[in-house]
């Protein structure tokens, strides 16, 4: 069950970070763009989207343990 939840949530995390990266990379070009800084930020967001599912897999068991501890009082 945990794996399924992590897989489903992972897709949303990947899409949201990729859209942020695309926006940062698109803003790098043209007049008033950030230039190299915007490209570097977009590349960092692309790397973050690559590691987001792994981080989510590591986070789910901690959240489950916390929910169990709260429910027991």
Write the layout of secondary structure elements.
Layout: H1 2-26, H2 36-72
Protein described:
The structure is a single chain. It contains 2 helices and no strands. It has helices at 2-26, 36-72. Helix 1 packs antiparallel against helix 2 (36-72). The radius of gyration is 17 Å and the shape is elongated. It starts with a helix and ends with a helix.
Strand content is under 5%
Number of strands: 0
Arithmetic mean of pLDDT:
78
Return the string of H and E elements. Answer: HH
What's the main sheet like?
none
Low-confidence stretches: none
- What separation lies between the terminal Cα atoms? 24 Å
- Going by helix content, strand content and strand pairing, the class is mainly alpha
Tell me the radius of gyration.
Answer: 17 Å
Name the shape in a single word.
elongated
Helix content: over 70%
Structure annotation, total helices: 2
Which key terms come to mind for this protein?
2 helices, 73 residues, mainly alpha, 85% helix, 0% strand, elongated
Quick structural gist:
With 73 residues, this protein is mainly alpha-helical. It has helices spanning 2-26, 36-72. The protein is elongated.
